[in-house]
Design a protein that fits this description.
2 helices, 52 residues, mainly alpha, 67% helix
Length: 52
């Protein structure tokens, strides 16, 4: 079984604070919220490109 990959990103303080607030509102950790948003973007992309 392959291990999870680590991805480090740099974000500005304002974006970090907004992401933290969003994650707390949604009941997720910041990492969980980032994963959720990435997965949503991938689903949207796949849905849009499958019709091409």
């Amino acid at each position: 079984m392959e291990k999870d990959k680590h991805l480090g990103i740099r974000i500005d303080s304002e974006t970090h604070e907004k992401l933290k607030s969003l994650a707390e509102y949604e009941g997720r950790s910041i990492n969980g919220e980032v994963l959720y948003l990435i997965r949503q973007a991938i689903k949207r992309y796949e849905k849009e490109t499958e019709q091409s």
